[in-house]
């Protein structure tokens, strides 16, 4: 399997190289040169398999030439052995049509664990036996940071510099990052929004003066290996609800378009997905793009669903590339225009290509709260604000009589205040992190400028020539 950049001017890489690289050297994002497919018989054969065995079948084509099936299985066994539920991502029925796919049974109580526990092991494996030292830089709107830090804390050959927007993540999210005191972990609170933090990370990769000094890599969903691991749970859920004999719809709370793009990959691989419902909060650039063709950056509005408070969705570029005939030159021009004007219209081909599979919805605070209350009172399930946004979109979507799976992306205890306001009940932290508020915190606050952040990292990171 070989990987190409969405902007068409970066080296074609194998799976190991693309995992360690993160962002492409031309500023684009990597994705497979061609989509592998599973036949109806192969998809039917997933029925009854464990999550680990499902993961091996789904991911094997993407790692071909780098890992064999036994090596892949060993990594999956280790990654998912830390999850608190034997099913890893269990399904919970809400009513006759609606289901929750619980993705929060990993160590940091969020769906990012599904990918990052696996990615941490890949980093360690690919660096083993070399003198290469990796400098991981990332931006987080809350959950990526804690999941990446848990996965990489104490691992040799890797330092992690994680940027989060100061005051714009929940207390639980922040403490899950800042109470990890491993010597290779550096937490940075910046002035600004998640979009500002994400822009800083991309600027570091795109600065030859800075990136040339360090072996930079990424743990955000710009890293292909992260998205690949998320494709698995679409297959795992769908076959339990009758695929491939019947299609299944998914409602996905999203800001950066990574989780829902994994669903698109599953569909390209042959999984019969009736609809991918892109659920946004009031920061609705993705809803406007898919419903009106208007991909224009607005001002980020802080909400009780901070992981979705995003106005520049990195992974949307991957979809636009695939729908636009995989023309890297044309997409590079399109993204360059967006970078300068903060506005972009989708082409006719991009709009037409998205319509059969995608729908979208914008959920305001009242509808989010109503969905949380309905889940609690009518279905006996306490859900977090992000999941509530996707559930609200699912309940008013028109997809016929197919099952609709809402991705439950975070444990409600990560957003205790918001859950309590809507349901009257304050969810307790699971025992495994019950002492979170008693732990010591450690982080540094910086201005949200390229100069301040790169100077901080340069003082602490291992230079390329030394590693």
From TrEMBL:
InterPro entries: Ser/Thr_deHydtase_PyrdxlP-BS, Thr_synth_N, Thr_synth_N_sf, Thr_synthase-like, Threonine_Synthase, TrpB-like_PALP, TrpB-like_PALP_sf
Co-factor(s): pyridoxal 5'-phosphate
Record flagged with keyword Lyase: yes
Top class in the EC scheme: lyase
Keyword S-adenosyl-L-methionine attributed: no
Listed Gene3D superfamilies: 3.40.50.1100, Threonine synthase, N-terminal domain (3.90.1380.10)
NCBIfam families: thrC
One GO term (biological process): threonine biosynthetic process
PROSITE patterns: DEHYDRATASE_SER_THR
Name of the protein in its database record: Threonine synthase
Sequence ranges assigned to domain Threonine synthase N-terminal in this UniProt record: 2-80
Alphabetized UniProt keyword annotations: Amino-acid biosynthesis, Lyase, Pyridoxal phosphate, Threonine biosynthesis
Reactions listed under catalytic activity: O-phospho-L-homoserine + H2O = L-threonine + phosphate
Family classification: Belongs to the threonine synthase family.
Transmembrane segments: none
GO molecular-function terms, A-Z: pyridoxal phosphate binding; threonine synthase activity
EC number: 4.2.3.1
Modified-residue entries (N6-(pyridoxal phosphate)lysine), positions: 112
Protein source organism: Sphingomonas aliaeris
This protein's pathway: Amino-acid biosynthesis; L-threonine biosynthesis; L-threonine from L-aspartate: step 5/5
Domain Tryptophan synthase beta chain-like PALP span(s) in chain numbering: 86-333
């Amino acid at each position: 399997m070989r990987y190409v950049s969405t902007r068409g001017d970066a080296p074609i890489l194998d799976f190991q190289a693309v995992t360690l690289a993160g962002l492409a050297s031309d500023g684009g994002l990597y994705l497979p040169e061609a989509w592998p497919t599973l036949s109806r018989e192969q998809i039917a054969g997933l029925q009854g398999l464990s999550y680990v065995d499902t993961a091996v079948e789904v991911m094997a084509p993407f790692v071909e030439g780098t890992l064999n099936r036994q090596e892949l299985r060993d990594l999956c066994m280790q990654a998912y052995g830390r999850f608190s539920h034997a099913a890893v991502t269990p399904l919970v029925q809400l009513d006759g049509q609606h289901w929750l796919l619980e993705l929060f049974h990993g160590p940091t109580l969020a769906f990012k664990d599904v990918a990052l526990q696996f990615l941490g092991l890949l980093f360690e494996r690919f660096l083993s036996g070399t003198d290469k030292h990796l400098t991981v830089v990332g931006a987080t709107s809350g959950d990526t940071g804690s999941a990446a830090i848990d996965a990489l804390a104490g691992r040799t050959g890797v330092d992690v510099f994680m940027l989060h927007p100061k005051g714009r993540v929940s207390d639980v999210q922040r403490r899950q990052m800042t109470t990890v005191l491993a010597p290779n972990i550096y937490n940075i609170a910046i002035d600004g929004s998640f979009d500002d933090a994400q822009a800083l990370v991309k600027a570091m990769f795109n600065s030859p003066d800075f990136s040339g000094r360090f072996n930079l890599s990424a743990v955000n969903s710009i890293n292909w290996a992260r998205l690949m691991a998320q494709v698995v749970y679409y297959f795992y859920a769908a076959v339990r609800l009758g695929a491939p004999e019947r299609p299944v719809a998914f409602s996905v709370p999203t800001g950066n378009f990574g989780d829902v793009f994994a669903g698109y990959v599953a569909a390209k691989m042959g999984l019969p997905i009736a609809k991918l419902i892109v659920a946004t909060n009031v920061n609705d650039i993705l809803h406007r793009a898919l419903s009106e063709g208007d991909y224009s950056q607005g001002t980020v509005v802080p909400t009780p669903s901070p992981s979705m408070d995003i106005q520049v969705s990195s992974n949307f570029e991957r979809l636009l590339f695939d729908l636009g005939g995989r023309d890297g030159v044309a997409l590079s021009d399109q993204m360059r225009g967006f970078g300068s004007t903060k506005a972009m219209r989708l082409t006719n081909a991009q709009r037409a290509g998205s319509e059969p599979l995608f729908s979208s919805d914008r959920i305001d605070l009242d509808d989010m709260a109503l969905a949380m209350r309905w889940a609690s009172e009518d279905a006996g399930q306490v859900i977090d604000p992000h999941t509530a946004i996707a559930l609200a979109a699912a309940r008013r979507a028109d997809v016929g009589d197919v099952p609709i799976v809402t991705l439950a992306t975070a444990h409600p205890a990560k957003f205790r205040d918001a859950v309590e306001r809507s349901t009257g009940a304050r969810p307790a932290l699971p025992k495994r992190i019950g002492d979170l508020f008693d732990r010591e915190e450690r982080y540094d606050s910086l201005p949200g400028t390229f100069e301040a952040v790169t100077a901080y990292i340069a003082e602490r990171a291992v230079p390329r020539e030394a590693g």
